Amino acid sequence: MSSPAVTSSIPENEPLTVVGGGLVGSLLALYLARQGHTVEVFERRADPRKGENLEGRSINLALSDRGWRALQGIGVEEAVREVAIPLYRRVMHDQRGQLTMQPYGKEGQAIYSVSRAGLNQRLLDLVDQEPRVQVRFNQQCRRVDLRNRTLEMFDAAAGSNHVWPYQHLFGTDGAYSSVRAAMQKTDRFNYSQQYLNYGYKELTIVAGPENSWVIEKNALHIWPRGQYMMIALPNLDGSFNCTLFFPYEGAVSFETLQTPEQVRSFFEEVFPDAVPLMPELEQEFFENPTSSLVTVRCYPWSVADEVLLLGDASHAIVPFYGQGMNAGFEDCTILQGLMAQYGHDWLTIFREFQRQRKPNADAMADLAVYNFEEMRDRVADPRFLLQKKIESKISAQYPQQWLPLYSQVTFSHLPYAEAWANGQEQERIMQRVMPHIETEADFERPEVQTLIAQELAQR
Amino acid sequence: MSSPAVTSSIPENEPLTVVGGGLVGSLLALYLARQGHTVEVFERRADPRKGENLEGRSINLALSDRGWRALQGIGVEEAVREVAIPLYRRVMHDQRGQLTMQPYGKEGQAIYSVSRAGLNQRLLDLVDQEPRVQVRFNQQCRRVDLRNRTLEMFDAAAGSNHVWPYQHLFGTDGAYSSVRAAMQKTDRFNYSQQYLNYGYKELTIVAGPENSWVIEKNALHIWPRGQYMMIALPNLDGSFNCTLFFPYEGAVSFETLQTPEQVRSFFEEVFPDAVPLMPELEQEFFENPTSSLVTVRCYPWSVADEVLLLGDASHAIVPFYGQGMNAGFEDCTILQGLMAQYGHDWLTIFREFQRQRKPNADAMADLAVYNFEEMRDRVADPRFLLQKKIESKISAQYPQQWLPLYSQVTFSHLPYAEAWANGQEQERIMQRVMPHIETEADFERPEVQTLIAQELAQR
């Protein structure tokens, strides 16, 4: 920790190696190159910009402040903003098609719907303009030999294996990381993969006439139904990507929806306002895969100064807080800060990175599961929405002392662990305040005002 | 669950396959054969009865009631008892060499020190006498192909690979199971491996003249030192296997003991009565490996009617309750009961097995970590030992209503999860009773008697 603050940008002889050229891997390659390093990126898939789009996951992503900051750091923020759709609020659809709203933050604050494929392609275009980075596509990682520091890659286009040595390896190969799988076999590597009993299915709300949006464009739509939910995010072409989060087994589950008739009848009962907007419902339901939802935790994230895991490879989370990509991008911001501080001292950089970042990744994993319950269940409860309104009033009255948890996570750069701790503390205060609240107007009552002032004074 | 209770012992055409011929694998093979099945066992190591003993772990094991019942089920109980040493109590050694005692159970109740290698060899001898079982040694599992139901085995003696099909596969290949590793890659497989920050080192207290025991033979010896401890179990030849459980890092840790002088000086300070009995201390300390301590949890334990994990492969635990082998052996007892009930209906057998057994394996994993804290720290506390004496008096007075947790785990066949729940409830009662107790005699005081009677009436 007493290393000198080397800021030299003279590259080392050996290029750095990045396994995984998805969102985090391509952004990381740009950060490493801008720091003066030469970088070799191995990506399993074919170049997504060539030929058919074989992209596995078409799901939209919600980009928020942490992600924007990381994009800004390499100067691509504005270009991405042009193709991002701001979502200023949640719109909840009840079983009769009636709507309620909940703003995400203050006036003008939004999360942004972006296409995963589009964003990845844009980052790869930037990588192409960076002479220090070389990307090799169609490279399936067959083996990571941690002892001899080599990668065995199967080149799917050439049909042959090749062994590559590495000096410093960055594993950004996602939730099912091959690099992490090699580390899992080393002694004292803590690891867990935990699945929800829920799967998800992607569906489509089609565009209206002339690519118009048939439900509110600048909102994230939720059909909360207690034990399950559907959500929808807008696309630029007027359509919406819908995702049904649904139990695998049980009375109401993927298991029990076996025929097109069952699907239609179920959707008409529980999502009546959405069904007319989903002309390909039955076909999509049976053609699109049912995907699982995993949380991956592990530690350590590094092997000496030789390997470092980032993004989903070290902390895959469920998608309900819209923070998976943002957390991975923030990894790049944090790493950038450490590189600026410690130069080529990779041992210190890797150790500091995992030490600082692990508690925040764990907190974010907890937050993501927590928000699933909020989205599928609590947002349908008028008392919950009233509580959120009161919280928003407290925040307006005491802006220095109270930022709602959602805003701390989404619209700030506070470490996730601090946000989560603050959020839990605020929730305890709300549990004491809400018994005194029947309507929004009760916030102004003197005893409520006194109680809130007292609670805040005690924090 | 409505399957008929088939008890036919007519074997199916296909032999059953067992991967792993250690303690649980060889016992399981015997149980399967006695049920009428033909069985093929693949074991990674060479036959331990031939040539040099290459047994990885020489550590002694503590056999208790659950293990005995499983051995009894195949008629080998008496033969094993002949080479087992009963341990009736814990003997705690303080830093000045002074001793305190704590009986494990009632008069005559004991856990039994047995040699892992000796027990494994005896089970393999029994397997040899069983015409329905074939054991193949030197078979390293290279790949389990769950889709095609094949095993790729590298025969280390022949130097060649062979692919074996399987119909029903039992994975008893331990904490680092290859069978489980294949299952880990399937969708929705929950898995965790968690290491303690402690490692262990095996050391030896040598025998006295004419193979005599230089400390009490029929006891498990503990040197509890708060953040670490040493234990010793007797061997038949008069020696004791000692195990030091010690932090990997920190002020007092493996990291800080780097020279023979440091080791001797440290041991003389903290284990002064043991050092004179350990003439090879320094040599053993640096020659013997430092081994890690892992808890493995996973679910599901089965794939259709095709694969079932048992023993450490599905529930590896830390060794502090002496229940790892006993839990694995109890798996065989439970499976035997399900085979008797469901015959060849492997789908039901596998599903019922994991459904019944998983909560108990989880409870046992928690108990094992809990007992580490008790052994290394609490047994050195006079108040803790007083509490144990009072508990023992309550148990004597109310034998139908109060069995100490240790006895429930060790001297009963109560499911582990029930034992753990009862134990936690009893601990809460003791927390209310102990403030009224200064000495053992206080147990007889009327207000204490009334309090205990009230607490028991409320359970």
TrEMBL record, chains A, B:
It catalyses: L-kynurenine + NADPH + O2 + H(+) = 3-hydroxy-L-kynurenine + NADP(+) + H2O. GO terms for biological process: anthranilate metabolic process; kynurenine metabolic process; L-tryptophan catabolic process; NAD+ biosynthetic process; quinolinate biosynthetic process. Residues 17-341 form the FAD-binding domain. Pathway: Cofactor biosynthesis; NAD(+) biosynthesis; quinolinate from L-kynurenine: step 1/3. Keywords: FAD, Flavoprotein, Monooxygenase, NADP, Oxidoreductase, Pyridine nucleotide biosynthesis. SUPFAM superfamilies: FAD/NAD(P)-binding domain (SSF51905). This is Kynurenine 3-monooxygenase. It comes from Hymenobacter wooponensis. The gene is kmo.
